[in-house]
Amino acid sequence: MATDYAIAGGVVGKERLDVLQRVHGPFTCALLDRVGIKRGARCLDAGCGGGHVSRELAARVGETGAVVGIDLDKVVLDLARSDALAAGITNVEFRAGDAGDLDVSGFDVVFARFLLSHVGDAATVVRALVHALKPGGVMVVEDTDVSGVMCYPPSVAFDRFVQLYSETIRRRGGNADFGRTLPALLTGAGLVDVGVSIAQPVATHGEAKLLVPLTLERIVDSAIAEGVAGNDEIAGTIAELYAQAADPTTLMSSARVIQAWATKPDAGPTQ
Prior knowledge:
This protein is an alpha/beta fold. It has helices at 10-35, 52-61, 74-86, 122-131, 156-171, 182-188, 211-218, 220-225, 231-246; strands at residues 42-46, 66-71, 92-96, 107-113, 133-145, 151-152, 192-199, 202-203, 251-253, 256-263.
């Protein structure tokens, strides 16, 4: 994938992913319920990160099914393996690999959450994922539409987060508002029966309010390296965002997330 991932990985990255899963996980589970993950299915979780969705898929497919999670971050993959082992999950395998250059195929379900907004050529990655999918299989994707975040009362720091994050992701080859393109992308890849929905955690208290400042913390190095902003400005913005998160009279959301799913057409009869 032609990109340089902007969000810090490793152990600190996994800590953010744990929070992200606690906040957004219920929306992903509702999506998987809607799509329908059959027992015995073989699933690919592309850009699996901490393996949270991989474990959810593993529980749904049961002992007769299998899940492969792939990611470029080997440290996070080690942590994902440890989490799966601790949970007694044996039907999931984590591999280091690039979602745009897969050496696996034959999956009933291909899933990707918050992956495509970070890649430079999402269409190429999607083609690789479609190739990994069996005819009749389902692709399920979730990705951000960051400009749809909200805060009330209005906040200069919150607006600045959107600018800093979007520009940093852009300079690293991605698109922070990529989610809105997902239905068209799936259709363009030859998939059919495209469905779409929106998910957006919003709260006056709790971890949902922490995702914005946490995410800004994790892109500080990338933002500075790309010349988007200086350390002092970002530090001040983060401090203000945490103060707003602690204020029970302030309503804050995390990124708006577009969810889309589609089916790979059955292979036609051989000539």
